[in-house]
Design a protein that fits this description.
membrane; 13 helices; 17% strand; four-stranded mixed sheet; signal-anchor; alpha/beta; 30% helix; seven-stranded mixed sheet; globular; signal
Length: 447
Amino acid sequence: MSQAFILVYLLPHPCLGVFCKMGVSSGYSLPVWMVMVVCAVTFVALLYTETLSSLSSGSFLRLNSCPKKKGEPRSVKSASDDENDSRGIKNEAADDRFEFDPSECSVTNGKWVFNSSFKPLYSDESCPHLDRQVACVTNGRPDSDYRFWEWQLEDCVLPRFDPKRALHKIRGKRLMFVGDSLQRGQWQSFVCLVESVIPQNQKSMRRGRSHSVFKIKQYNATVEFYWAPFLVESNSDLHIIGDPKQRILRVDSVEKHARNWHNVDILVFNTYVWWMSGLKIKSLWGSFANGEEGFEELDAPVAYRIGLKTWANWVDSNVNPKKTRVFFTTMSPTHMRRADWSKKDGIRCYNETKPILKKQYWGSGSDQRIMKVVSSVVEKMKVAVTFINVTQLSEHRIDAHTSVYTEVQGSVLTAEEKAEPLHYADCIHWCLPGVPDTWNQLFLAYL
């Protein structure tokens, strides 16, 4: 056997192909040195290509925010799909995201998508447990699109709220929402989301001034709300004081409220808006029995930090994490300044009918100093606290507040009052069904 054929036999197959194309198969004789050079170059090129292929498939280059689903992606997006996305039209066929994983999926990275086929699980007419304050349709709101927007995560699929799954999760348990009127809205949303699948004789509601209980006999469970707008004690806990300058907080005392939180299996806390009702907050150490003596005015974030530390110390000292899970709903943004979303005409959130579709929108109604206080306090706690991060997704929803379709001091706004949105538009609370349903969608995904 000639030297040329020995070399070809030992080298990889691609060299053989090159060699044949140069005339070996036709009997044409090439110099041995030329065959060796061609084959060596081919061999090096092959090794280089295989090395790149191996590197490009390495796991360290795949930076997915969620674990990939088994099997093929559901579909491939077309050019028209991108156009639909920009218009806020949901395209089910273009959904190739991953399954939701609470530890890896960012709930702030998403967008609101309009889905006209989506049917809310309840209405303010069908659920008997809604306060008139948030029953916007009953109060005369003429548009309904605000009920058909869904928060769609960029990389992950946020599961829909499943009432039966929710009831299964709280079977044999006490679930309590603790906080202000926004937390009461989340509680009412949760109750309305599950109550339609419970037989009439298996459910009951007891409303109280500070403590309300929805009982589900079939599941031996309760869904409760406890009113504590600051979490710590204040002179506005029962007899609400409208003037923020007259409110006084016992920033070092929480036991008056906390004694009602014992033996609860799932605690969901919030507190924000009441702390932001002024630049200064009258903060008291000691008893209210001493009158207003002993208080000092603190900057709102400073008082907030002291109050939240008082709450955190109680949780760390009294909650057994093996028996009780603790959640914290982050701040719900307000939309009081129309200039935030570049509209000079109009008044606050009045007559807004669509969300802000700009990604990562941030307005003046969310105080980032407060977010930093919450995160810094919670990260030092011994008991794990799960955030229900509603802030970013709610920032976009300028269209979903109760506005003038609400009540004030127990009375629905009159036609004359509705005509004065500057004085009466409520751009703090949310219509139900609406945005708080999405908060509970997140809550259930974490539960």
